[in-house]
Write a structure and sequence with these properties.
Blueprint lengths: L27 H10 L3 E5 L3 H9 L4 E4 L3 H4 L11 H12 L6 E5 L9 H13 L5 E3 L7 H9 L4 E6 L5 H4 L10 H14 L4 E5 L3 H10 L4 E4 L7 E4 L1 H4 L17 H18 L12
Parallel strand pairs: 1-2, 1-8, 2-3, 3-4, 4-5, 5-6, 6-7, 7-8
Helix pairs in contact: 2-4, 5-6, 8-9
EC number: 2.1.2.11
Subunit structure: Homodecamer; pentamer of dimers.
InterPro entries: Pantoate_hydroxy_MeTrfase, Pyrv/PenolPyrv_kinase-like_dom, Pyrv_kinase-like_dom_sf
Length: about 290
């Protein structure tokens, strides 16, 4: 049965056009359909109810509760220290405060790389306790058995190759992956993950021609971050794209706002009003 109000709703796939069907929640087939139709889509990270609500209402079709919360919520130097117990409340906050977006939870470092049983148990926690709709894991061909186990058990998997932040110490820091002779190996890794059942593959810090090649050979969507414009989708950390964090942003980040500047000015204005006695005024106070 069609929804008479569907035409007035924002398209949950992020095209900016009115929805043509009453899609209550973006699902994996919708993302796959956009690949087939050549329509690109955006993904952002989210870690709390307000960012989740805003991005959901803006029509972002997929939200990633990333282990990047280690850097952007908890203040760690890398993503490595963040734990399952630290991420679960963030995933639940995002999942329960969205109506349309597909919510994907990162499996943090050390929670899935030991055994298949460990990875399965971690993924189940994010689905049951975090209310995630899918999980994401980092790694190439070595992750194919876990990817196959999870997808067979009904847990959708987004894969992640190229630069994998959880392995930054082994990789020698933030370095572009897949250059030169390594390009073929990266393509093969992405293919292996597709064969294992992954519904999408994140390509991070990969040369643009290599990412475009992976996108062409895979039937599932590719999601780029520092991988050029030839992928099916793009993802950014929301505090980067909104200008919330200080310091130099990665080369692949485009800043769409200056929230740090806006909040700084607001805090300074508030402090000045308190110091001068301008706040609270009569309209902010209660009478007897």
């Amino acid at each position: 049965m069609s929804d008479p109000g569907a035409a007035e709703q924002p398209n949950p796939y992020g095209s900016g056009q009115p929805a043509q069907a009453a899609v209550r929640r973006v699902r994996i087939p919708h993302l796959q359909a956009m690949k087939t139709e050549g329509r690109r889509w955006a993904m952002l990270t989210a870690y709390d109810m307000y960012s989740a609500q805003i991005f959901d209402e803006a029509g972002i079709p997929a939200l990633l509760v990333g282990d990047s919360a280690g850097n952007n919520v908890y203040g760690y130097e890398t993503t490595v220290p963040v734990t399952v117990d630290e991420l679960l409340p963030l995933v639940r906050a995002v999942s329960t405060n969205t109506k349309r977006a597909l919510v994907i939870a990162d499996l943090p470092f050390g929670s899935y790389g030991g055994t298949l049983e460990q990875g399965f148990a971690t993924a189940v926690r994010f689905m049951k306790e975090g209310l995630a709709h899918a999980v994401k894991l980092e790694g190439g061909r070595a992750m194919a058995p876990l990817c196959e186990l999870l997808t067979t058990a009904g847990i959708p998997v987004m894969a992640h190759v190229g630069f994998t932040p959880q392995s930054e110490h082994q990789l020698g820091g933030y370095r572009v992956q897949g250059r030169g002779d390594a390009a073929d190996a990266l393509v093969d890794e992405a293919r292996a993950l597709e064969s294992a059942g992954a519904f999408a593959v994140v390509l991070e810090m990969v040369p643009a021609p290599v990412a475009a090649r992976v996108t062409e050979v895979l039937s599932i969507p590719t999601v780029g971050i520092g991988a050029g414009s030839g992928t099916d989708a793009q993802v950014l950390v929301w505090s980067d794209f909104a200008g919330l964090r200080a310091g130099r942003a990665p080369r692949f980040v485009k800043k769409y706002a200056d929230l740090r500047g806006i909040l700084t000015e607001a805090a300074q204005a508030y402090a000045a009003d308190v110091a001068s006695g301008a706040f609270p005024a009569a309209e902010h106070s209660f009478e007897e």
